[in-house]
Amino acid sequence: MMVKLRLENRMVVVIGASDEAVQRANSFANQGARVLLVGTPAGGWASLISIQDDSSMSCRYAKRPSRKDLKRAALVVATDRDDVINTWLSDKAKRYRFLLNTLDVPEYCDYYHVAIRRPHLDIEIGVSTDGHSPAFASSLATRLAKTVTDDDC
User: Is 125:145 a contact under the CB 8 Å cutoff?
Assistant: First the structure.
């Protein structure tokens, strides 16, 4: 089953120090979520992105979010594939009741990201492999989107 969450004005915490973390944080912010990006990028956040102009997103230079952050979160995404952080977050997800996604570690996930393509304004195509093969899901979604023509709409 695939669902689409409405995240407007909901807190999303993204944990990671990579371009992938920034990309996911931006994606959630574009959906109207209030985003906290937590991580320790080598060159600081300025090396990855300038987000000071976006009031819906903030950054914190830290290994992991505070418990206060997690209590307010509707959704948490861990992008660094760090088993210590993932285990800690899994325990906190049960306690604070946020939905958790740990990239490429499906056993900790409450939900999986879906590869979505929008070949037309009114059409979204989504492909999921339940976290087992995100690269394949992305590739297949792209191929399927290319088959949609104006006659389909």
Answer: yes
